[in-house]
Amino acid sequence: MNRIKSLDSQKLLTKLEKVPSILRTQRVRIDFFDRQSIDVDAIVQDSLPGGSCIGTVVGCHGTPGSHNDFKYILSYLHAYGIRFIGINFPGQGYTP
């Protein structure tokens, strides 16, 4: 596979004064049909990275918006042991 591009979101994280502990940087590889790929250091919101035997909720924000749109339900999901994964679309939240 050819690596065509690498984005470093960690640099963006270090510029922020306060980043909630639920956010972390994770290397994500996106493979394309033409055998090329892109590596992105994505900023991920995952309340239970080890998974949940109860279930997982995936939140996709509106436009404009970010993972913060779901901040009011996170404590409820966590209290019941339900995993939450928040997605930030490009240009929103901490996503470059």
UniProtKB/TrEMBL annotation:
<dbReference type="InterPro" id="IPR010463">
    <property type="entry name" value="DUF1057"/>
</dbReference>
<dbReference type="InterPro" id="IPR029058">
    <property type="entry name" value="AB_hydrolase_fold"/>
</dbReference>
<dbReference type="Pfam" id="PF06342">
    <property type="entry name" value="DUF1057"/>
</dbReference>
<protein>
    <submittedName>
        <fullName>AB hydrolase-1 domain-containing protein</fullName>
    </submittedName>
</protein>
